[in-house]
Design a protein that fits this description.
mainly beta; seven-stranded mixed sheet
Length: 122
């Protein structure tokens, strides 16, 4: 059974850092575009970062570029997100996902997790 499970969310102070992790099972990361999206309360899903199924390059959303970085261990079906310089706009439920292509990561993911909450507050 295909599954993705996130961990690592929590409370972070503004300007702080946090690492999220995602464990996948039941499918191969290399067969999909994989990445993270987030959804803040009352807002639509937003793509954070996606590793393309074509060139395996990472494409970041403008809001997180230069602050967030993705890592992948395809052999272990593990995925992570290192977030730094967290801001007031970053709080959301962060979910890892796999899709047929990056444009579909937020709208039609093939597999995705329940998400982990990241809160930014003093």
């Amino acid at each position: 059974q295909e599954q993705m499970v996130e961990s690592g969310g929590g409370l972070v102070q503004p300007g702080g850092s946090r690492r999220l992790s995602c464990a996948g099972s039941g499918f191969r990361f290399d067969d999909y575009a994989i990445g993270w999206f987030r959804q803040a309360q009352g807002k639509t899903r937003e793509a954070v970062v996606c590793i393309s199924s074509d060139d395996r390059l990472a494409y970041y959303g403008d809001a997180v570029k230069d602050r967030f970085s993705i890592w992948v261990d395809a052999a272990k079906n593990s995925l992570g997100l290192h977030m730094k310089d967290l801001k007031a706009d970053d709080p959301a439920v962060y979910s890892c996902a796999a899709a047929q292509s990056c444009p579909l990561l937020t709208s039609e993911p093939t597999f995705w997790g329940q998400g982990t909450q990241v809160t930014v507050s003093t």
